[in-house]
Q: What sequence folds into this?
Protein backbone atom coordinates (compact mmCIF):
# COMPACT_ATOMS: atom_id res chain seq x y z
CA UNK A 1 0.00 0.00 0.00
CA UNK A 2 2.79 2.42 -1.02
CA UNK A 3 0.51 4.96 -2.69
CA UNK A 4 -2.20 4.79 -0.02
CA UNK A 5 -1.94 7.87 2.21
CA UNK A 6 -4.33 6.47 4.84
CA UNK A 7 -2.94 5.49 8.25
CA UNK A 8 -5.36 3.85 10.73
CA UNK A 9 -2.79 4.26 13.52
CA UNK A 10 -2.82 8.07 13.10
CA UNK A 11 -6.54 8.50 13.76
CA UNK A 12 -7.34 11.41 16.08
CA UNK A 13 -10.87 11.24 17.55
CA UNK A 14 -13.12 14.21 16.92
CA UNK A 15 -13.33 16.79 19.71
CA UNK A 16 -15.78 19.63 19.38
CA UNK A 17 -14.29 22.96 20.43
CA UNK A 18 -15.48 24.09 23.85
CA UNK A 19 -15.50 27.83 24.33
CA UNK A 20 -14.90 29.58 27.65
CA UNK A 21 -17.62 31.86 28.95
CA UNK A 22 -15.46 34.86 27.97
CA UNK A 23 -15.05 33.61 24.37
CA UNK A 24 -18.76 33.00 23.75
CA UNK A 25 -20.18 35.72 21.48
CA UNK A 26 -23.08 37.72 23.02
CA UNK A 27 -26.56 36.49 22.15
CA UNK A 28 -28.38 39.73 21.42
CA UNK A 29 -31.77 38.17 20.71
CA UNK A 30 -31.89 36.46 24.11
CA UNK A 31 -30.86 39.67 25.83
CA UNK A 32 -33.49 41.70 23.95
CA UNK A 33 -36.19 39.15 24.70
CA UNK A 34 -35.47 39.37 28.44
CA UNK A 35 -35.51 43.20 28.24
CA UNK A 36 -38.82 43.25 26.38
CA UNK A 37 -40.32 40.74 28.83
CA UNK A 38 -39.31 42.98 31.75
CA UNK A 39 -40.76 46.06 30.04
CA UNK A 40 -43.97 44.17 29.33
CA UNK A 41 -44.18 42.99 32.94
CA UNK A 42 -43.33 46.28 34.67
CA UNK A 43 -45.06 48.76 32.37
CA UNK A 44 -47.93 46.45 31.36
CA UNK A 45 -47.17 46.85 27.65
CA UNK A 46 -48.73 43.93 25.78
CA UNK A 47 -46.83 44.23 22.53
CA UNK A 48 -43.50 44.10 24.45
CA UNK A 49 -44.50 40.73 25.92
CA UNK A 50 -45.32 39.35 22.45
CA UNK A 51 -42.13 40.82 20.94
CA UNK A 52 -40.08 39.12 23.67
CA UNK A 53 -41.65 35.75 22.74
CA UNK A 54 -40.80 36.32 19.07
CA UNK A 55 -37.20 37.26 19.88
CA UNK A 56 -36.85 34.27 22.17
CA UNK A 57 -37.90 31.91 19.36
CA UNK A 58 -35.50 33.69 16.97
CA UNK A 59 -32.56 33.41 19.37
CA UNK A 60 -33.32 29.78 20.23
CA UNK A 61 -33.54 28.61 16.60
CA UNK A 62 -30.23 30.27 15.69
CA UNK A 63 -28.24 29.22 18.76
CA UNK A 64 -25.34 26.76 18.58
CA UNK A 65 -25.21 23.63 20.70
CA UNK A 66 -21.64 24.44 21.84
CA UNK A 67 -22.67 27.81 23.28
CA UNK A 68 -26.20 26.97 24.47
CA UNK A 69 -26.93 27.76 28.12
CA UNK A 70 -30.08 25.90 29.20
CA UNK A 71 -30.45 27.81 32.47
CA UNK A 72 -30.54 31.09 30.55
CA UNK A 73 -33.16 29.69 28.16
CA UNK A 74 -35.31 28.54 31.08
CA UNK A 75 -34.97 31.96 32.79
CA UNK A 76 -35.89 33.84 29.58
CA UNK A 77 -38.92 31.64 28.94
CA UNK A 78 -40.13 32.03 32.53
CA UNK A 79 -39.83 35.83 32.26
CA UNK A 80 -41.86 35.79 29.04
CA UNK A 81 -44.60 33.63 30.60
CA UNK A 82 -44.81 35.90 33.65
CA UNK A 83 -45.03 38.96 31.39
CA UNK A 84 -47.82 37.45 29.27
CA UNK A 85 -49.80 36.20 32.26
CA UNK A 86 -49.51 39.60 33.98
CA UNK A 87 -50.76 41.43 30.91
CA UNK A 88 -53.69 39.06 30.34
CA UNK A 89 -54.69 38.41 33.95
CA UNK A 90 -57.89 40.47 33.32
CA UNK A 91 -59.17 37.62 31.15
CA UNK A 92 -58.92 35.18 34.05
CA UNK A 93 -60.71 37.66 36.35
CA UNK A 94 -63.62 38.03 33.93
CA UNK A 95 -64.00 34.27 33.72
CA UNK B 1 -90.91 97.05 62.39
CA UNK B 2 -91.23 100.89 62.16
CA UNK B 3 -87.79 101.09 63.89
CA UNK B 4 -86.35 98.81 61.33
CA UNK B 5 -87.85 100.82 58.51
CA UNK B 6 -86.29 104.01 59.98
CA UNK B 7 -82.85 102.35 60.19
CA UNK B 8 -83.14 101.04 56.67
CA UNK B 9 -83.99 104.54 55.45
CA UNK B 10 -80.85 105.86 57.03
CA UNK B 11 -78.75 103.17 55.31
CA UNK B 12 -80.36 103.25 51.93
CA UNK B 13 -83.69 104.57 50.85
CA UNK B 14 -84.39 101.54 48.61
CA UNK B 15 -84.14 99.23 51.62
CA UNK B 16 -87.29 100.61 53.23
CA UNK B 17 -89.73 97.94 54.28
CA UNK B 18 -93.32 98.49 53.50
CA UNK B 19 -95.47 95.92 55.18
CA UNK B 20 -98.46 96.64 53.03
CA UNK B 21 -96.74 96.46 49.65
CA UNK B 22 -97.00 93.25 47.80
CA UNK B 23 -93.72 91.57 47.21
CA UNK B 24 -93.14 90.39 43.74
CA UNK B 25 -91.19 87.24 43.54
CA UNK B 26 -90.32 85.61 40.27
CA UNK B 27 -92.26 82.58 39.46
CA UNK B 28 -90.61 79.40 40.63
CA UNK B 29 -89.44 77.21 37.84
CA UNK B 30 -90.04 73.59 38.15
CA UNK B 31 -86.73 72.01 39.05
CA UNK B 32 -86.42 68.49 37.89
CA UNK B 33 -84.58 66.30 40.32
CA UNK B 34 -81.77 64.32 38.76
CA UNK B 35 -82.49 60.71 38.11
CA UNK B 36 -80.08 58.72 40.22
CA UNK B 37 -78.45 55.93 38.29
CA UNK B 38 -76.70 52.88 39.64
CA UNK B 39 -73.31 53.94 38.29
CA UNK B 40 -71.26 51.36 40.19
CA UNK B 41 -72.51 48.50 38.01
CA UNK B 42 -71.50 50.22 34.73
CA UNK B 43 -68.19 51.58 33.26
CA UNK B 44 -68.32 55.38 32.74
CA UNK B 45 -67.00 54.91 29.18
CA UNK B 46 -67.87 51.36 28.10
CA UNK B 47 -65.61 50.01 25.25
CA UNK B 48 -65.69 46.74 23.39
CA UNK B 49 -62.36 44.92 23.95
CA UNK B 50 -60.57 44.12 20.69
CA UNK B 51 -57.80 41.62 20.19
CA UNK B 52 -56.40 42.80 16.86
CA UNK B 53 -52.87 43.10 18.22
CA UNK B 54 -53.00 39.63 19.77
CA UNK B 55 -54.34 38.08 16.58
CA UNK B 56 -51.62 39.80 14.54
CA UNK B 57 -48.90 38.62 16.92
CA UNK B 58 -50.21 35.05 16.94
CA UNK B 59 -50.30 35.02 13.13
CA UNK B 60 -46.73 36.37 13.04
CA UNK B 61 -45.57 33.69 15.47
CA UNK B 62 -47.27 30.96 13.42
CA UNK B 63 -45.64 32.34 10.26
CA UNK B 64 -42.26 32.44 12.02
CA UNK B 65 -42.55 28.86 13.26
CA UNK B 66 -43.51 27.61 9.81
CA UNK B 67 -40.49 29.49 8.37
CA UNK B 68 -38.28 27.82 11.00
CA UNK B 69 -39.45 24.41 9.83
CA UNK B 70 -39.05 25.20 6.10
CA UNK B 71 -35.65 26.92 6.52
CA UNK B 72 -34.34 24.11 8.72
CA UNK B 73 -35.38 21.48 6.14
CA UNK B 74 -33.67 23.40 3.32
CA UNK B 75 -30.44 23.79 5.29
CA UNK B 76 -30.42 20.10 6.18
CA UNK B 77 -30.92 19.18 2.52
CA UNK B 78 -27.93 21.37 1.53
CA UNK B 79 -25.81 19.84 4.30
CA UNK B 80 -26.71 16.30 3.23
CA UNK B 81 -25.78 17.18 -0.36
CA UNK B 82 -22.43 18.54 0.85
CA UNK B 83 -21.79 15.38 2.84
CA UNK B 84 -22.44 13.12 -0.16
CA UNK B 85 -20.15 15.21 -2.37
CA UNK B 86 -17.26 15.08 0.11
CA UNK B 87 -17.58 11.53 1.42
CA UNK B 88 -15.87 9.71 -1.51
CA UNK B 89 -12.92 12.14 -1.48
CA UNK B 90 -12.50 11.89 2.31
CA UNK B 91 -12.76 8.09 2.23
CA UNK B 92 -9.97 7.96 -0.42
CA UNK B 93 -7.65 10.14 1.63
CA UNK B 94 -8.43 9.38 5.27
CA UNK B 95 -8.72 6.21 7.28
CA UNK B 96 -11.77 7.26 9.30
CA UNK B 97 -14.58 9.59 8.27
CA UNK B 98 -17.36 10.98 10.41
CA UNK B 99 -17.58 12.70 13.79
CA UNK B 100 -18.85 9.68 15.72
CA UNK B 101 -16.36 7.32 17.33
CA UNK B 102 -18.19 4.20 16.17
CA UNK B 103 -19.21 3.44 12.60
CA UNK B 104 -22.87 4.02 11.78
CA UNK B 105 -23.52 6.40 14.69
CA UNK B 106 -23.50 9.59 12.63
CA UNK B 107 -21.28 11.19 10.02
CA UNK B 108 -22.02 14.86 10.45
CA UNK B 109 -22.37 17.11 13.49
CA UNK B 110 -25.28 19.56 13.45
CA UNK B 111 -24.00 22.37 15.64
CA UNK B 112 -26.90 24.67 14.84
CA UNK B 113 -29.75 24.81 12.34
CA UNK B 114 -27.34 26.55 9.95
CA UNK B 115 -23.92 25.11 10.97
CA UNK B 116 -22.78 21.57 10.10
CA UNK B 117 -19.39 19.87 10.60
CA UNK B 118 -17.80 16.91 8.82
CA UNK B 119 -14.60 15.30 10.04
CA UNK B 120 -12.03 12.83 8.77
CA UNK B 121 -8.78 11.60 10.30
CA UNK B 122 -6.00 9.08 9.75
CA UNK B 123 -3.48 10.25 7.17
CA UNK B 124 0.31 10.05 7.15
CA UNK B 125 0.91 13.85 7.01
CA UNK B 126 -2.34 15.35 8.30
CA UNK B 127 -3.86 15.17 11.75
CA UNK B 128 -7.42 15.53 10.48
CA UNK B 129 -9.57 17.59 8.15
CA UNK B 130 -12.48 19.44 9.70
CA UNK B 131 -14.99 20.88 7.26
CA UNK B 132 -17.49 23.43 8.58
CA UNK B 133 -20.50 24.37 6.47
CA UNK B 134 -21.95 27.72 7.59
CA UNK B 135 -25.17 28.37 5.76
CA UNK B 136 -27.26 31.52 5.96
CA UNK B 137 -29.93 31.45 8.66
CA UNK B 138 -32.84 30.39 6.50
CA UNK B 139 -34.75 29.33 9.61
CA UNK B 140 -34.76 32.90 10.97
CA UNK B 141 -37.43 35.08 9.34
CA UNK B 142 -35.81 38.30 10.62
CA UNK B 143 -32.49 37.32 9.08
CA UNK B 144 -34.08 36.41 5.76
CA UNK B 145 -36.24 39.53 5.46
CA UNK B 146 -34.23 42.24 7.16
CA UNK B 147 -30.53 41.30 6.96
CA UNK B 148 -30.93 39.47 3.67
CA UNK B 149 -32.03 42.69 2.00
CA UNK B 150 -29.12 44.81 3.22
CA UNK B 151 -26.21 42.37 3.24
CA UNK B 152 -25.22 39.73 0.71
CA UNK B 153 -25.00 36.78 3.06
CA UNK B 154 -23.48 33.77 1.34
CA UNK B 155 -23.21 30.14 2.32
CA UNK B 156 -19.61 29.38 3.27
CA UNK B 157 -17.53 26.28 3.77
CA UNK B 158 -14.22 26.25 5.63
CA UNK B 159 -11.56 23.59 6.14
CA UNK B 160 -8.98 23.22 8.89
CA UNK B 161 -6.00 20.86 8.62
CA UNK B 162 -3.04 20.39 11.00
CA UNK B 163 -0.01 19.33 8.91
CA UNK B 164 3.16 17.40 9.70
CA UNK B 165 6.31 18.03 7.60
CA UNK B 166 8.82 15.43 6.46
CA UNK B 167 11.60 18.02 6.89
CA UNK B 168 10.78 20.86 9.23
CA UNK B 169 10.73 24.10 7.24
CA UNK B 170 9.44 27.54 8.12
CA UNK B 171 6.36 28.30 6.05
CA UNK B 172 3.77 31.07 5.91
CA UNK B 173 1.63 32.04 2.95
CA UNK B 174 -1.83 33.24 2.09
CA UNK B 175 -3.86 33.00 -1.09
CA UNK B 176 -6.66 35.56 -1.09
CA UNK B 177 -8.66 37.97 -3.19
CA UNK B 178 -6.77 41.15 -4.15
CA UNK B 179 -9.37 43.43 -2.58
CA UNK B 180 -9.05 41.62 0.77
CA UNK B 181 -5.25 41.82 1.06
CA UNK B 182 -5.20 44.90 3.30
CA UNK B 183 -7.74 43.52 5.81
CA UNK B 184 -6.16 40.09 6.00
CA UNK B 185 -2.65 41.47 6.47
CA UNK B 186 -3.91 43.60 9.34
CA UNK B 187 -5.49 40.56 11.02
CA UNK B 188 -2.52 38.19 10.62
CA UNK B 189 0.74 39.42 12.10
CA UNK B 190 2.92 36.75 10.50
CA UNK B 191 1.56 37.49 7.02
CA UNK B 192 2.06 41.20 7.61
CA UNK B 193 5.66 40.78 8.83
CA UNK B 194 7.04 37.83 6.90
CA UNK B 195 5.36 37.81 3.49
CA UNK B 196 5.06 39.94 0.38
CA UNK B 197 2.91 39.80 -2.75
CA UNK B 198 4.39 37.49 -5.41
CA UNK B 199 3.41 37.05 -9.04
CA UNK B 200 3.28 33.39 -10.04
CA UNK B 201 0.61 33.42 -12.73
CA UNK B 202 -2.51 33.21 -10.60
CA UNK B 203 -5.91 34.04 -12.16
CA UNK B 204 -6.84 37.72 -12.01
CA UNK B 205 -8.47 38.83 -8.81
CA UNK B 206 -6.22 36.67 -6.63
CA UNK B 207 -2.97 37.51 -4.83
CA UNK B 208 -0.41 35.25 -3.25
CA UNK B 209 1.40 36.54 -0.17
CA UNK B 210 4.44 34.38 0.48
CA UNK B 211 7.95 34.57 1.95
CA UNK B 212 9.99 33.35 -0.99
CA UNK B 213 9.51 32.71 -4.70
CA UNK B 214 11.03 29.24 -4.26
CA UNK B 215 8.31 28.18 -1.80
CA UNK B 216 5.60 29.84 -3.92
CA UNK B 217 6.68 28.05 -7.14
CA UNK B 218 6.90 24.68 -5.38
CA UNK B 219 3.47 24.97 -3.76
CA UNK B 220 1.60 26.60 -6.63
CA UNK B 221 2.54 24.27 -9.45
CA UNK B 222 0.57 23.77 -12.67
CA UNK B 223 -1.90 21.34 -11.06
CA UNK B 224 -2.76 23.71 -8.22
CA UNK B 225 -3.18 26.68 -10.56
CA UNK B 226 -5.52 24.59 -12.74
CA UNK B 227 -7.61 23.76 -9.66
CA UNK B 228 -7.71 27.46 -8.67
CA UNK B 229 -8.85 28.42 -12.19
CA UNK B 230 -11.58 25.79 -12.14
CA UNK B 231 -12.92 27.19 -8.86
CA UNK B 232 -13.54 30.64 -10.43
CA UNK B 233 -14.40 33.13 -7.67
CA UNK B 234 -15.31 30.74 -4.92
CA UNK B 235 -11.98 30.93 -3.04
CA UNK B 236 -12.05 33.44 -0.20
CA UNK B 237 -8.81 32.57 1.56
CA UNK B 238 -6.24 29.80 1.95
CA UNK B 239 -3.85 30.46 4.85
CA UNK B 240 -0.93 28.27 5.88
CA UNK B 241 1.26 29.15 8.86
CA UNK B 242 3.71 27.65 11.33
CA UNK B 243 2.71 30.19 14.00
CA UNK B 244 -0.54 28.42 14.92
CA UNK B 245 -0.42 24.97 16.53
CA UNK B 246 -3.73 23.12 16.76
CA UNK B 247 -2.46 19.78 18.03
CA UNK B 248 0.90 18.51 19.23
CA UNK B 249 3.08 16.91 16.61
CA UNK B 250 1.55 18.90 13.75
CA UNK B 251 3.35 22.28 13.68
CA UNK B 252 1.76 23.67 10.50
CA UNK B 253 -1.87 24.71 10.20
CA UNK B 254 -3.94 25.21 7.07
CA UNK B 255 -7.14 27.24 7.32
CA UNK B 256 -9.25 27.92 4.25
CA UNK B 257 -12.58 29.50 3.43
CA UNK B 258 -14.70 29.09 0.29
CA UNK B 259 -18.08 30.24 -0.95
CA UNK B 260 -20.59 27.39 -1.15
CA UNK B 261 -22.70 27.41 -4.32
CA UNK B 262 -26.01 29.20 -3.84
CA UNK B 263 -28.97 26.92 -3.11
CA UNK B 264 -26.84 23.88 -3.87
CA UNK B 265 -26.68 24.57 -7.61
CA UNK B 266 -23.46 24.02 -9.64
CA UNK B 267 -22.03 21.78 -6.96
CA UNK B 268 -19.26 20.43 -9.22
CA UNK B 269 -16.61 22.47 -7.51
CA UNK B 270 -17.49 21.52 -3.91
CA UNK B 271 -15.28 18.44 -4.12
CA UNK B 272 -12.68 20.49 -6.07
CA UNK B 273 -12.45 22.94 -3.15
CA UNK B 274 -11.63 20.09 -0.77
CA UNK B 275 -9.23 18.62 -3.35
CA UNK B 276 -7.34 21.94 -3.59
CA UNK B 277 -6.97 22.09 0.17
CA UNK B 278 -5.70 18.49 0.43
CA UNK B 279 -3.27 19.03 -2.46
CA UNK B 280 -1.84 22.19 -0.88
CA UNK B 281 -1.51 20.41 2.47
CA UNK B 282 0.35 17.54 0.77
CA UNK B 283 2.75 19.92 -0.99
CA UNK B 284 3.33 21.89 2.25
CA UNK B 285 4.29 18.69 4.06
CA UNK B 286 6.81 17.83 1.29
CA UNK B 287 8.31 21.35 1.07
CA UNK B 288 12.11 21.42 1.26
CA UNK B 289 13.65 24.87 1.11
CA UNK B 290 17.25 25.55 0.12
CA UNK B 291 19.69 26.43 2.94
CA UNK B 292 19.86 30.14 2.14
CA UNK B 293 16.10 30.63 1.96
CA UNK B 294 15.56 28.59 5.12
CA UNK B 295 18.15 30.61 7.06
CA UNK B 296 16.63 33.91 5.90
CA UNK B 297 13.14 32.75 6.90
CA UNK B 298 14.33 31.64 10.34
CA UNK B 299 16.13 34.96 10.83
CA UNK B 300 12.93 36.85 10.00
CA UNK B 301 11.01 34.74 12.48
CA UNK B 302 13.58 35.38 15.21
CA UNK B 303 13.24 39.15 14.63
CA UNK B 304 9.47 38.89 14.65
CA UNK B 305 9.50 36.89 17.90
CA UNK B 306 11.94 39.36 19.46
CA UNK B 307 9.60 42.22 18.64
CA UNK B 308 6.70 40.22 20.03
CA UNK B 309 8.56 39.53 23.30
CA UNK B 310 9.57 43.22 23.52
CA UNK B 311 5.97 44.29 23.06
CA UNK B 312 4.81 41.81 25.71
CA UNK B 313 7.44 43.03 28.19
CA UNK B 314 6.45 46.63 27.52
CA UNK B 315 2.82 45.79 28.13
CA UNK B 316 3.68 43.97 31.40
CA UNK B 317 5.78 46.94 32.55
CA UNK B 318 2.93 49.34 31.80
CA UNK B 319 0.51 47.14 33.75
CA UNK B 320 2.91 46.95 36.69
CA UNK B 321 3.34 50.75 36.76
CA UNK B 322 -0.40 51.26 36.53
CA UNK B 323 -0.95 48.85 39.45
CA UNK B 324 1.67 50.67 41.52
CA UNK B 325 0.10 54.04 40.75
CA UNK B 326 -3.37 52.76 41.69
CA UNK B 327 -2.04 51.32 44.94
CA UNK B 328 -0.32 54.60 45.83
CA UNK B 329 -3.48 56.55 45.12
CA UNK B 330 -5.49 54.22 47.36
CA UNK B 331 -3.00 54.63 50.20
CA UNK B 332 -3.08 58.43 49.83
CA UNK B 333 -6.85 58.43 50.02
CA UNK B 334 -6.64 56.24 53.13
CA UNK B 335 -4.15 58.59 54.80
CA UNK B 336 -6.31 61.64 54.06
CA UNK B 337 -9.11 60.11 56.06
CA UNK B 338 -6.96 59.52 59.18
CA UNK B 339 -6.59 61.86 62.20
CA UNK B 340 -3.32 63.86 62.82
CA UNK B 341 -2.07 61.48 65.52
CA UNK B 342 -2.62 58.43 63.31
CA UNK B 343 -0.95 60.18 60.36
CA UNK B 344 2.12 60.91 62.49
CA UNK B 345 2.31 57.30 63.70
CA UNK B 346 1.99 56.04 60.07
CA UNK B 347 4.80 58.37 58.96
CA UNK B 348 7.01 57.10 61.77
CA UNK B 349 6.32 53.53 60.73
CA UNK B 350 7.19 54.23 57.09
CA UNK B 351 10.38 56.07 58.09
CA UNK B 352 11.49 53.09 60.20
CA UNK B 353 10.74 50.76 57.28
CA UNK B 354 12.89 52.84 54.93
CA UNK B 355 15.72 52.87 57.45
CA UNK B 356 15.50 49.13 57.83
CA UNK B 357 15.76 48.80 54.05
CA UNK B 358 18.85 50.97 54.00
CA UNK B 359 20.24 49.04 56.96
CA UNK B 360 20.69 52.09 59.17
CA UNK B 361 19.63 52.41 62.80
CA UNK B 362 18.52 55.89 63.71
CA UNK B 363 15.94 57.10 66.15
CA UNK B 364 13.55 59.78 65.12
CA UNK B 365 13.78 62.75 67.51
CA UNK B 366 10.57 64.53 68.32
CA UNK B 367 10.81 68.25 67.73
A:
Amino acid sequence: MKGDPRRPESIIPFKDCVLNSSEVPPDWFSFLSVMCAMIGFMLRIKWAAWASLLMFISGYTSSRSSTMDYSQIFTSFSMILISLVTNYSFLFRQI
Amino acid sequence: MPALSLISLLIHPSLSFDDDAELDFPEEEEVQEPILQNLSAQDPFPQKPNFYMEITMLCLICLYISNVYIGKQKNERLATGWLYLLKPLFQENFSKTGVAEKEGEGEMLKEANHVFKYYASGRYNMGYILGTLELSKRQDLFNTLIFGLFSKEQDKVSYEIPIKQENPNPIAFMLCKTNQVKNLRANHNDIKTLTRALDIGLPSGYTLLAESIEAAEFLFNGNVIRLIESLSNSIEMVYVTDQVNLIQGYPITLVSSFVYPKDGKDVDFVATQAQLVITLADLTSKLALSGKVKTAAEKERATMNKDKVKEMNQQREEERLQKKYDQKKKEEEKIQGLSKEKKRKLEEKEYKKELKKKGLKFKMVKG
